[in-house]
Amino acid sequence: MDKKFGVAVIGYGGMGGWHVKKLLSLKDEGIELRGVYDIKPERNQAAEEAGVHAYASREELLSDPSIDLVTVAIPNDMHHEVCIDAMRHGKNVVSEKPVTLSSQLLQEMIDEANKNHVIFTVHQNRRWDEDFLIMKKIYEEGTLGPVFNIESRVHGSRGIPGDWRNTKEHGGGMVLDWGIHILDQIMQMVKKPLLRVYANLTYVTNENVDDGFKVILGFEDDLNVQVEVGTSNFINLPRWYMQGENGTAVIRDWDCSGEIVMVSDWEKRDAVPIVTAAGLTKTMAPRTEETIKRYPLPRVESDVRDFYRNVVKASRGEEEQLIRHDEMMRDMKLMEAIFRSSETHTVVTDIF
Hints:
Radius of gyration: 23 Å
Distance between the termini: 40 Å
Structural class: alpha/beta
Strand content: 15-25%
Order of helices and strands: EHEHHEHEHEHEHEEEEEEEEEHH
């Protein structure tokens, strides 16, 4: 890169600080952090104390001609206004997820990007999670044979953080917070048409926003996907569970521990019955070891900084942006279908 690519971050909270660290690590690749701005003076002070320039106002930041890209890392309800403001200043824009709160607002943001001929995308960083990439590889390579069931879940036991994330007016709740991540992952993995959505949202720890959900996605060819987030789980279920005609794969946690178990002998079906207190079952008795084989999970390495590398190249016309407008709209309309299903207690089929 001959010319330094200037980036600034609006919002210097948890994710804003994360973006700052990633951008600083790309300095040798020609990506230069110009500074940050936060509406809270103490956060601007914290940035200065960390050696990061803090702009005096949002207008000062957006008026700086050395800034090519603005990353917006603020509460969800403010993404629309601030991103549009940045695009009207001629800046390329990265929005934290969820990109905004409705498909109508998103269309306005997309229209503004097209009008000003700038890159506009959303930071779907979980596309680089290695647990997801491992399962995507197993699915795409047909390791298990035809897949008929996928389960993706994130469990915690501390409720929703006590900040803007637990307020409806700021775009809180688990569908918008964690749901957008794992829904986007599924839609990246499964390329079949999505036919139906059924959702159940929970309000265990508060009444304002959903603190968890279970969503069933029905795809073409009878592929069933269950997506789940819980914040009151003191015993966690596996992060990933995938079933195919020839075997099963599991990833238990963020450390990517798990295995693949495949059938090795379809003919030997006999098993020793399982005896319970009230009877016995042969149907549910496990296969004997000589009829199955166990395999380690494949390993997939990733570098989330590839997100910013792509945005820079896309802004220069060298690559297509990885997280496209149509994908952003697809994810937003899927979340809207989830909310409709939960509110009406019905299966939703008019998704997109």
